[in-house]
Amino acid sequence: MMKQEIQKIIPFTISGSVLFRFQTLFLFILSLTVFSCGNPPSDDTGAPKPEYTEEDPGRWESIAEDHLPEISILGGYFSPRIKISLESKNWNKSHYIEKIGIFRISDKKDLAIQEFSPGTFVYSAEFPYEYEDDQVKVFVKCNLHDLWTVDDLKRFRE
To answer: What was the pLDDT predicted at 20?
Structure first.
C-alpha cells in the first residue's frame, strides 16, 4: 500500500515510541491470558490444595485409589518399621511417583524419604518407625497429581 492509502485508513501517524508501548501492552495482556488459562483446575477455594487424602481427594477423586499407599507398621516395640508401597498399572515415564516418605505434622519437616526416577513402576520403601502415630503423616508425591497424605497411622499397626 502506498503512504496516502494508509493515511486514508489511519488518519493519524503513530510514532515509534507509541507503537512500542502498544506492542508491550499487547504482549503483557497476552502473557496474562496464556499463563492464567494454563493453570490446572483448582478446588472450590480457587487455589490448589496443599495435600490430598482418601477422605478429601479434591479434584483427583477419580484417580485417588492409584495414589494412596498401602501402609504396614511392622515389628515389635523395640524395632518397629513402616512399609509404604504403591502399585498401579498407570505409571509410565511421564506419570510417576517422585517420592514416598514421612513428615512431621507440626512443621512439615521430612523425616524419611525414598525418591524415585521416571520409569519406576513399583514404589516401595521401608523405614525405621520411631514416631508417635499422631505426630506424623505418610506422603506420596506424584509428578502430575500433587501430594497425597495419610495420617492416623495407629490403624496400620499389626
So the answer is: 57
| Selection from 97, 59, 92 nearest residue 84 by Cα | 97
- The reported pLDDT for the residue numbered 157 is 78
Nearest to 67 by CA among 144, 156, 151, 129: 144
- Could you tell me the pTM of the whole model? 0.67
The three cell numbers locating residue 70 = 498401602
Task: Give pLDDT tens digits for 24-39.
Answer: 655 556 454 444 444 4
The CATH class, in words, for 58-156 is mainly beta
Q: Which of 98, 85, 101 has its CA nearest to residue 137?
A: 101
Task: Give the closest residue to 147 by CA, choosing from 112, 106, 97.
Answer: 97
d(CA 59, CA 41): 8
What residue ranges of the chain are covered by domains with CATH 2.60.40.730?
Answer: 58-156
